[in-house]
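Q: Hi! First time doing this. I have a protein sequence and I read that you can turn it into a structure. Is that right? Here it is:
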Amino acid sequence: MKVLVIGSGAREHALCRSMSLDPDVSALHCAPGNAGIAEVAELHAVDALDGAAVAALAKKLEADLVVVGPEAPLVAGVADAVRDAGIPVFGPSGEAAQLEGSKAFAKDVMAGAGVPTARSYVCTTPEEVDEALDAFGAPYVVKDDGLAAGKGVVVTDDIELARAHGRACERVVIEEFLDGPEVSLFAITDGETVLPLQPAQDFKRALDGDEGPNTGGMGAYSPLPWADPKLVQEVLDTVLQPTVDEMKRRGTPFSGLLYAGLAITSRGVRVIEFNARFGDPETQVVLARLQTPLAGVLLASATGTLADLEPLRWSDDAAVTVVVASHNYPDTPRTGDPITGLDEVAAQDAPYAYVLHAGTKRDGENGPVVSAGGRVLSVTATGGDLTQARERAYAAVACIGLDGSQHRTDIAAKAAAES
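A: Yes, that's right. Below is the predicted 3D structure, encoded as structure tokens:
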């Protein structure tokens, strides 16, 4: 099977790494990719938002499967262009990807499907913003309706900060605050059958103790030893399957990866948001535990044959990923700094710890790997339990040199201490 992955982040590196180990994958390509992905896949220059260009590349490569990684190309309809070219593609249509592209649309779908979620208002004027904030009170939850790369949500007790964010958005969703821990649960679907993966928990705040600004994610872990063993089945029955069924009923079937961001509240499971693709950094830990070859599962989604698959197989090991970010992230990050220690991680800890590249590039054809974004690397490790996985992940982080870099030191710490 020849596979083309679209994207350039740690999520795409995790996908490529998994498929590079798949015996059914005969050729692996990625566009545009990054310095780390280049070690496992052949890179190609392409505008990931240009559906015609992506489809043309897939035809040129004679790809048997195209996997569209990021949300922006999905919302832009890149998967539609590939499908129209007659090539199986893992990822929803542009219309179905509005589950992530518009929080107001997602709320409407959830209402139609009877999915439990936070009460909310959709606001388009300053007056509506003020009324909604007054109605819910603190803590205030203010979400940009459109795509914001994981940083469009403000949760604060500061009414002025909440008001400023709400007024800065063309359309904004303001909702009640949901108490309780957050969980990410992915599901692969072909528009009818829904195949849930293992849950993970990520860490959105930039600093230890969940302090600092919201980010795209500073780390994650799986499994969740504190979670109810029935959680996955409950979410499948009350959230995932009803949503897929509702999308089909509306004439916009959803095929690809449906990501449910959940709050385990005192009143039960509630959906915080949907994403239309693998989440970063949770993908890194979920795929680290998946033993079933990945490419065949994604192809089954793309071809409508998920119901024919055997149950997925999972490792009992735990996985932890720690994000190494650039100086000044999540504000304007500094880029172009050399990264050292990557070979040391590979030599010291393989196969238990490895580095997945996000914002990196090679400085010249044979030059050093340098930072090229805010979140630069995801250092991922597995172990017999969360404590061992954490130790291996942080030992690997300690090998890496990146001037001015930052990372959280408490990823999975509480869950490991309590398990």
